[in-house]
Design brief:
By secondary structure, the protein is of the alpha/beta class. The protein is built from 19 helices and 32 strands. The strands form 9 sheets. It has an 8-stranded mixed β-sheet with strand order 12-11-8-6-7-14-15-25, with helices on both faces. It starts with 5 loop residues before the first helix and ends with a helix. The chain binds adenosine-5'-monophosphate-propyl ester.
Length: 638
């Protein structure tokens, strides 16, 4: 049956006339050598896109625009933490990226080498990513909010030749030192980088390691006039890895290609975000997350747009003053046409004076896109009415790299539906499967697991870094007898084809739009000498979407005889998590119990704990070993 409607046909063609469809989209980017073969899916689930084509992400993001728009703004950097506001034109960005590329090469980095980037939201972080792409080095950005334990495991897995970092990040005007965390992480990691390149922001003193550590300021001057051409890379050359959480404690390195990613981003800028060259895009995310990779750095620049990179809270102005209207003032000042944020940030803004929204001229803004976590109805209503602009919820993952569900107004103007991130995006053959039988659910409003039939479209993960088996087993083998990609999200589809996302099927939680693995937090807490066992669950929170809640069994109860001692232990455990994973992973509370709810076979009943914490019915407990365990948790919550 052929679909009717402009978008439905567009989507249908993307799946059923795949090669012709994507050959057309591939024209949105520059190729040094055009692709010889559009899609090779001869070895499922590994998809290879645009084989034989050579291109470069940095060329498409920067050099390509030098001809038509050299003096147009490319990177607008605003930090309400340091009061810095600076615009780089494409010409200036080109020069900075070449300086960084020359410095990186000078430190021994070659094509295919990994460069780990552990940086705050400063312009140099974008230079570093683009410089890696330029020379074909693989960047691995680690979120600046992670601490030494999390960083160490990523250093070990990525085995970078070089690490690029800074003296400190800053939050609410307070410096957060990076260098000691980095030094500790390198100490913990079995792999040691040959060199460390450091941006000194003047926020915190740094102890330099002779022979290993280098200062960016000095190398920048040394390479001031550097000319470093773009390396032409085969489309399947790995551009980057980005670590994300899953069911196990060990983070997965999501590996992305070059050509497919460039095409996917260019197409998404046209069909989903509707951003045009010469305009300004403002994404409030962080370069440590996938949204930062795709829609702070690469996507807008590939489209010839200026990208606004913002460091700071949404409620603080450039002089450090309280200012809940800062983002809107930037929209006015830089004539932002497309804005991208997360529901959590909107919930923070909701607490500010609504008059702040009326104060600024937001006429340039066409739409606000929100992603990363479920968009609840009151938040969607509030921001939609306050802004008077379309609010577009879009659903995707670190793994996909760009939206899998959205409306595509660049193809056909499509109504949004509150609570729904829309319909399957072109290229994604999205289905709902019964989690027990694996049967496809085709009826309206049936709950199932959201899956994607292979091949995944261009721009999605190639594999798990250095672990093809993990890629296949984790994502593609969840349904017996079928090779389909599982998103690990529950969903339903209404009678008109709009999807609704109902939460994760695994142990991943979403705290303020940050994706965290409860297992990673459990492993960190279990390292405390007086913790015998621990369960961490995500519990609904009105502001952050979810918060982590920990329940721990104490080894030696005599060491914590009273409430005061328990509070102290709770504080110590939180500090432990802060130091190991970072404050972002710190549980909201750590409560103490004498046993945890488990099945008779010893499996932790996290879902039952979560239900009790949220005041819901824990469901069928016939497999539970000792019901008093759940009762203890209930009693604690009273
Ligand atoms: O559970 C889904 C949720 O966030 C997960 C992916 O998180 P991450 O890898 O950090 O990538 C975020 C990219 C925007 C998903 O598996 N999620 C993401 N977007 C939505 C969402 N849940 C509901 N609605 C969304 N729009």
């Amino acid at each position: 049956m052929n679909p009717t409607g402009v978008y439905a046909e567009f989507h249908h063609r993307s799946i059923h006339d795949r090669d012709a469809f994507w050959a057309e989209q591939a024209k949105l980017v520059d190729w040094h050598t055009p692709p010889q073969h559009i899609c090779d899916y001869s070895n499922p689930p590994f998809a290879k896109w645009f084989l034989g084509g050579t291109t470069n992400l940095c060329h498409n993001a920067v050099d390509r625009h030098l001809k038509d728009r050299p003096d147009q703004a490319a990177l607008i950097y605003v930090s309400t933490e340091t009061g810095i506001e600076k615009t780089y034109s494409f010409r200036e960005l080109h020069a900075e990226v070449q300086r960084m590329a020359a410095a990186i090469k000078g430190l021994g980095v070659q094509k295919g080498d990994r460069v780990l980037i552990y940086m705050p939201m400063i312009a140099e972080a974008a230079f570093a990513m683009l410089a890696c792409a330029r020379i074909g080095a693989i960047h691995c950005v680690v979120f600046g909010g992670f601490a030494s334990g999390a960083l160490a495991s990523r250093i070990e897995d990525a085995s970078p030749r070089l690490i690029i970092s800074a003296d400190a990040g800053s939050r609410g005007g307070k410096a957060i030192e990076y260098k000691p965390l980095l030094d500790e992480a390198i100490k913990l990691s079995a792999h040691k980088p040959e060199a460390v390149l450091l941006v000194d922001r003047g926020l915190a003193p740094m102890t330099m390691v002779a022979g290993r550590d280098h200062l960016w300021d000095a190398l920048r001057l040394q390479h001031f006039g550097a000319v470093v051409g773009c390396e032409w890379l085969e489309a399947n050359h790995t551009s980057y890895t980005l670590y994300t959480s899953g069911t196990t404690g060990k983070p997965k390195g999501v590996q992305r290609d070059t050509g497919g990613y460039a095409v996917a981003l260019a197409a998404s800028m046209k069909h989903i975000y509707c951003g045009n060259a010469g305009e300004t895009y403002f994404s409030t995310s962080d370069i440590g997350w996938v949204v930062g990779h795709s829609y702070i750095v690469y996507g807008p620049l590939i489209a010839g747009m200026a990208t606004l990179m913002y460091e700071g809270l949404p409620t603080r102005g450039l002089a450090g003053e309280a200012n809940g209207g800062i983002w809107w003032s930037l929209v006015e000042k830089y004539k932002v046409t497309v804005m991208f944020s997360a529901p959590t940030a909107v919930r923070v803004l909701k607490k500010q004076d609504p008059a702040l929204l009326a104060k600024y001229d937001l006429s340039s803004l066409r739409a606000l896109f929100l992603a990363g976590e479920p968009l609840d109805e009151p938040t969607a209503q509030w921001i939609g009415q306050s802004l008077g602009k379309p609010i577009i919820d879009n659903y995707w993952q670190t793994e996909t790299g760009w939206p899998a569900l959205s409306v595509c107004n660049g193809v056909e103007q499509t109504a949004t539906r509150i609570g729904s991130p829309g319909k399957p995006v072109y290229g994604y053959d999205v289905k709902l499967l019964d989690d027990q039988t694996g049967a496809e659910l085709t009826g309206a409003n049936q709950k199932g697991v959201v899956v994607i039939e292979g091949p995944l479209p261009p721009g999605c993960m190639q594999t798990v870094w250095r672990d093809d088996a993990r890629f296949v087993n984790t994502y593609w083998k969840t349904v017996p007898g079928k090779l389909v990609y599982s998103t690990f999200d529950w969903g339903i589809r209404d009678a008109d084809g709009y999807f609704f996302i109902l939460g994760r099927t695994d142990d991943v939680i979403n705290v303020a739009g940050h994706r965290l693995g409860t297992r990673e937090i459990e492993e960190s807490i279990a390292a405390h000498p007086n913790v015998a066992e621990v369960a961490v669950v995500g519990v609904a929170d009105p502001l952050k979407g979810q918060v982590a809640m920990a329940f721990a069994v104490i080894k030696d109860a005599s060491l914590v005889p009273d409430d005061k001692a328990r509070l102290k232990l709770e504080g110590d455990i939180m500090k432990l998590v802060d130091g190991d994973l970072g404050a972002v992973a710190r549980p909201a509370r750590v409560r103490f119990v004498t046993l945890l709810p488990k099945t008779r076979s010893g499996k932790l009943l996290r879902r039952a704990i979560q239900a009790v914490c949220e005041g819901r019915d824990p469901g069928d407990l016939t497999t539970m070993d000792d019901p008093s365990a759940l009762q203890q948790i209930k009693d604690l919550l009273i």
